[in-house]
Amino acid sequence: MTARTFQNNVARNLPQPDVSAPRIMTRRNFRQYSNKSRTQRPVNVKRSVLSWKGHIRRKLVRLRKKGAEIGTISRTAPTPRFSRTPVFSFFFIVISTASAVGLLGIVVGTVSQPESSFHRGESEVYIGHRISPFELQLKKLSRQTKAEVAGQIHFIKQYIDNFSKRIDQATAKSLAIDIYVESRKTGLDPFLVTSLIQTESAFKQWARSNRSAYGLMQVQPATGKYTAQLSEISWKGGHSLLNDPKFNVRIGSAYLKYLITRFNGDVQKALMAYNWGPTNLDLALSGKKKIPSAVKHYANSILNRQTKFHLNFRQVKEQYQYMNVSYLPDSLWMDLVSPS
After folding, report:
1. Percent of the chain as helix, strand, coil, to the nearest 5
2. Which residues are bridge partners to 126 per DSSP?
3. Which of 29, 161, 218, 332 is the most exposed place for a label (fewest CB within 10 A)?
4. Where are the domains of the chain?
């Protein structure tokens, strides 16, 4: 056995060195030691506890210097350097200033504008901008009133559709609107005017009689011109009684209203005068003439049909309670409140 072999055998039998044993920490060894993971490093429990105690002690010392009490360390987020009270006060001041400036601008703008006013009865209404009294009345129309108006117009339109198949729906709707608007403006019942038009022309716009009566309400040009002067309506000529159904209904309704007023509110006598003539009826009432049975039947049939319209509408009135008022054009509401 050589000397080298003997040294190798002795080296194998010697115990292996403990890796965790402390050794001299050189700069190279420190680098290798620090590169190891935390689980591979030797843990000195006593030194770790002492280190944390020292850390806590130093923390308490710093808190004591700041005036904090020992043992009342808050675990919440640290208070920001600025205080919240000044920030809240700042926003409160900004909002208050903006509100004051806005209110001042409204007051100044209202005072600087010229006040326009109009009289409606005994009360005087002041508003910030110019508006006609008819627009104000239009705004005051309730939803229920508009629904009732739309219901009556739709009822008349359906009746015209069912009565005459030659009239399309658009024409029937336009005719129903004209009847309702013009009759309301003259203070008449729309169902009365509808019944009268059915008897006179059967809702035919171009109807002509052998006595030169024209249009829906069979108005003679001379009678129409006289009625236009009494009612302060612009006369458009006899041809307008045929070409313009709305003008025809306006003149005819005004003439019927004149007859009702002349005979002290007696609608039956007014209808007889509409058919027979007011002069003939005056002679008959004075005993100089006898009222023909056809004239009486004319007036009674119109009144009976008017009553039937009201009964039928009362039965279906609930269906129109929530009717969409957009069914009607916007110009209709202005026509209802305007004087002409």
Report:
1. 65, 5, 30
2. 117
3. 29
4. 142-337
